[in-house]
Amino acid sequence: MELRIALIGFGNVGQGFVKILARKSPLLAERYGVDLRVVAVSDRSKGSVYDPGGLDPSALLSLIEEEGSVSGYPGGVKGMGSLATIRETDSDVVVEVTPTDLETGEPGLSHIRAALEAGKHVITSNKGPIALAYGELSSLARESGVELRFEGTVLSGTPAISLATEALAGAEVLGVEGVLNGTTNFILTRMEEGVDYEDALREAQRLGYAEADPTADVDGWDAAAKLVILANVVMGADLSLGDVEREGIGGVTREAVARASAYGRRVRLLASAWRSGGAVAARVAPAEIPLSHPLASVSGVTNALTLRTDHLGDVTIVGPGAGGVETGQALLSDLLAVARSLRARSGPPL
Ligand code: HSE
After folding, report:
1. Which amino acid residue places its CA nearest to atom 8 of ligand 1?
2. Given the DSSP bridges, would you call strands 148-149 and 121-124 parallel, antiparallel or unpaired?
3. Considering its fold, how many domains does the chain have in total?
4. Residues 70 and 179 placed together within one structural domain of the fold
């Protein structure tokens, strides 16, 4: 089966995904019978190129490394904007990986709406549109008969959404608790090692973990957005970002981190959602937790998520929470899930 991909956004995550394709396309074809073919790339600052015959992943990456733009790609149609790329290219799936904006959701929100309206499957790691408009977008996807998947919005490629909705199908998720932001966990870990807050933040930015505007990380907005996504998707809540009680790590000093360490405790930015009466309540805040707590051993950019379930009690998953290739893995697993679903639809009736 061939899946023709229009890639909207070619930053750290888009490039991480294309790196995976450059290395693994033959193996993916052999193992899963899927030809994942990028036919278009469109990025606001790195240019755009469309070739219905498919683009060579390695050539795209070399161009970015050497010229910072895909405009020099040999052949193909150049200069199409993102919406034209979504609507006018011969593609089955739009992979939307533009930067997150938690105030407006844009430009991702318009991209996703346009793709769903055009009858294209959408895969995204962009938290803005899913945190702000999950209800609207999932209805639109249903009406259009297409898939909307967003594994990469929470815990990058470490399964979180599909863990709850697919692997744990049939179980109720009664609550969630996690370390959901890599940048703040990295900063808190570096502070435990004696590094200053500002230096640790710069390091997180250099490593590509922090958001374009890192206040989204340090003030707890990024963790709150992931928590809203989890609560709404896996707990059936209807939360907005404003419903999350939120405190960032700005008030956490190196002294406080050292004091906690001296008492065998760690400071972590915890994100939690729980059922309260008939509703779901949610909070993001720094907390001192004992080393015996399952989330205390999560260091650096690593994230962790505990799902409190009716049938299994607590289920905790630990893994990378940010990074280009790590989030590329989420896009890849979503693409393979779309391929499975399309096969199931076209198979013989049960
Ligand atoms: N800035 C985010 C983080 C990236 O640090 O976790 C992944 O969503």
Report:
1. 322
2. parallel
3. 2
4. no
Q: What is the mean pLDDT of the chain?
A: 95
Is 183 close to ligand 1, i.e. is its CB under 6 Å away? yes
> 172 near 309, Cβ under 8 Å?
yes
In this structure, the answer to whether residues 148 and 23 fall within a common structural domain is yes
H or E segment to which residue 315 belongs? strand 313-320
Judged on CB neighbours under 10 Å (0-12, 13-18, 19+), 150 is: buried
The answer to whether 155 and 180 are in contact (CB under 8 A) is yes
- Indicate if 95 and 209 belong to the same structural domain: no
Is the pLDDT at 346 greater than 90, yes or no?
no
Domain extent for 266:
163-320
Among 101, 130, 183, residue to substitute to test ligand 1 (most atoms within 8 Å of Cβ): 183
pLDDT of residue 347 exceeding 90, the answer is: no
Q: Which residues, 6 or more positions from 350, have their beta carbon under 8 angstroms from its beta carbon?
A: none
Q: What is the CATH number of the domain that holds 125?
A: 3.40.50.720
211 Cβ closer than 6 Å to some ligand 1 atom: yes
* Cβ of residue 321 lying under 6 Å from some atom of ligand 1: yes
Q: For the chain, give the percent of residues with pLDDT over 70.
A: 99
The answer to whether the beta carbons of residues 310 and 156 sit under 8 Å apart is no
Q: Which of 73-82, 206-215, 240-249, 301-310 has the lowest mean pLDDT?
A: 206-215
Mean pLDDT computed over 311-317:
97
Mean pLDDT within 291-310: 94
DSSP, residue by residue, 232-291: HHHS-----GGGEEE--STT--HHHHHHHHHTTEEEEEEEEEEEETTEEEEEEEEEEEET
Domain match, 10 and 153 both: yes
222 in contact with ligand 1, CB cutoff 6 A: yes
